[in-house]
Design a protein that fits this description.
Elements: E1 4-8, E2 11-15, H1 23-26, H2 30-36, H3 58-66, H4 71-74, H5 78-81
Antiparallel strand pairs: 1-2
Length: 91
Amino acid sequence: MPVAIDTWQGFVFVNPDVDALPLREANPELDALAAKTNLDFSGYTFRQRWTYEIPANWKVWVENATECYHCPTVHRGSFSDAFDTDETSTS
């Protein structure tokens, strides 16, 4: 299946739309936003990998592991401060 592929800061982005604009053209504010929020992956290095079976659909597990809608109420303090869940926020 043909796809559009682009890279950014070491990440590979795959778009099923072969006619899609390149990542930075579709998201011209990406580099500025990364700079504004100090988002820099250049110093990241692979450290370790854990492998284990989860008796669940992988999509449900990924959604559960990456969303943080519950963080402001369940994980008050420094952990929830790492996630901006305010849809009206411009920061």
